[in-house]
Amino acid sequence: MDDLIVNFQLDASALGHLTSSVQFGFIIGTLTFAILTIADRYSPSKVFFICALLGSLFNAGIIWEGSSLKSILLFRFFTGFFLAGIYPVGMKIAADYYEKGLGKSLSFLVGALVIGTAFPHLLKEITNVFTWKSVLIVTSTLAVLGGLLMVILVPDGPYRKSSQQLDLSAFFSVFQNRKFRSAAFGYFGHMWELYAFWAFVPIMLMAYSMEHPEVVFNIPLLSFLIIGIGGLGCVFGGYLSQAIGTKRMAFIALFLSCVCCFASPLIFSLESEIIFITFLLFWGMVVIADSPLFSTLVAQNVSPKIKGTALTIVNCIGFSITILSIQLINGVRTLTDSNSIYIILAVGPIIGLMALSTKKEKTKHRVKNIYF
């Protein structure tokens, strides 16, 4: 980002716009894909490939020497837009292959997302020799390769049910399902906390170092470990969910991350950097462990014909919420130096826990299954 600002002689304020434009593009993309039910009407693997190809082209488009701030923002926006055909569609593909064990499979998929999210921090630590153009070329090439692998090696899953007609009402009608609403609002509460935590991990480490001058942290490496360990949290959560149930495991993970939000002010005051880092590592595990479980609950509580649309809908709303929480924390930081600001992140988990705790509606009649 800094190289783009220098190379194209942009204002320093452009940094935030360059970051937000990708998120905004993803939100608009998921909204479009959900309304048009793209992932359910067409082969998910082919959608994945086309979006990987187009996304890589827009990602590499910034190399164009005639780029200006407007064109760069457009390139970043459309990169985010076509990412809408990658992450939620990837979950749709997994859901088409697993009727049982979906929670475990999605845990591996989201775990891979977590490692990818943490990887730039590691790159910042280990190398500073690549030009910004080569980074864009390599990442775009890998995106095309990933799309090719998907379309060649991953045909439509055995549990896929295609929706042949455009259903513009699916975006709204899906929320009439009580179980879906419970899972969706649990996911929304989780997303309020997740990306804000990830965004402020380096700032938390820096704040602790400033309060304890004797402590020297390798912030990029520790940021990679704290975020990346969430990949293991996803996998462990996926396996545990098979033993205790998907909804119960999601509740436990969300409750533990909520506790971390409330405990965070106390941890900053401790003199032991080992306890501080251990706490952040634990928080990094539980803050994401529930994500694939919520996606599993969403996929299991909708009609197979709109499964992809449902996953895309919750992604669209969930990522919109992340912008609000990140901007709120960032705004509060300008008003105070207190480390108590991260308690604000507990609002999301509290709402999510309430959604998951909704009791089932009572029915006058029960239908018993009779097995012969």
List strands and helices in order, with pairings.
Elements (H helix, E strand, L loop, with lengths): L1 H6 L6 H22 L2 H4 L2 H17 L8 H15 L3 H11 L4 H25 L5 H22 L16 H4 L4 H34 L7 H10 L1 H15 L1 H24 L3 H17 L1 H10 L6 H27 L13 H10 L16
Helix pairs in contact: 2-5, 2-16, 4-5, 4-6, 4-8, 6-7, 6-16, 7-11, 7-12, 7-15, 10-11, 10-13, 10-14, 10-15, 10-16, 10-17, 11-14, 12-13, 12-14, 13-14, 13-15, 13-17, 15-16
Give an overview in words:
- The chain is an all-alpha fold and 372 residues long.
- Helices cover 73% and strands 0% of the residues.
- The chain contains 17 helices and no strands.
- It has helices at residues 2-7, 14-35, 38-41, 44-60, 69-83, 87-97, 102-126, 132-153, 170-173, 178-211, 219-228, 230-244, 246-269, 273-289, 291-300, 307-333, 347-356.
- Helix 10 packs parallel to helix 13 (246-269) and helix 11 (219-228) runs parallel beside helix 14 (273-289).
- The N and C termini lie far apart (65 Å).
- 41% of the residues are buried.
